[in-house]
């Protein structure tokens, strides 16, 4: 029996580094599971779009089942509205495809491990934790669920032994990265590290880096880390069995 196609749905960016990083991550996923067909699509700015990929899959006749996986760390607007809407419209137009939407990436211990990897790569050693305050810097959202998820991640990191951990946001929410860096200094942390809780480079990660100027260490974005690639496959394997609702039920099916 043919495995469902994994369709990785990224946000997209005008910054070419974003798409390059997404494609590197998808290649790593494919290397972890040879034989699995993995496709990439973008919501905005980059090609191909989600409808373009789904139309190509339908026209080829080589795919029946598709699992669309949002390349998102939290459940915010794109995961709750944009992506479900696009998939429902595609299901109505392409009845030959059976499309399911997987869960977003967070929360997961694998994301904690990916953050820790980037901090180690930036030069922090395990014995540095007790004297180092950590800023977990996310892109930002107005969605309370997404904000709460970042706060929960910061608490989980704090339990691993850091001097203190504070969340920060590049947009939409407060505090900003520079504010959390200063707050950790005021708490008495001997040094401060900033961990961007974002997948790929772009405008908002650059804003995080700008806010980290007064920090001692700036880690890299999560990017094509082994942990992130494994997490994508875990979400693929755990995708719900329920098919995407047809377009006529859009109003009632979109989560509040």
From TrEMBL:
SUPFAM superfamilies noted in UniProt: Chelatase
Instruction: Keywords in alphabetical order, please.
Output: Lyase, Metal-binding
Task: Identify the InterPro entries for this entry.
Answer: CbiX-like (IPR002762), Sirohydro_Cobaltochel/CbiX (IPR050963)
Q: Which GO terms describe its molecular function?
A: lyase activity; metal ion binding
Return any one Pfam family short name: CbiX
CDD domains on file: CbiX_SirB_C, CbiX_SirB_N
Give the top-rank taxon of the lineage listed in the UniProt record for this protein: Bacteria
Name of the protein this chain belongs to? Sirohydrochlorin chelatase
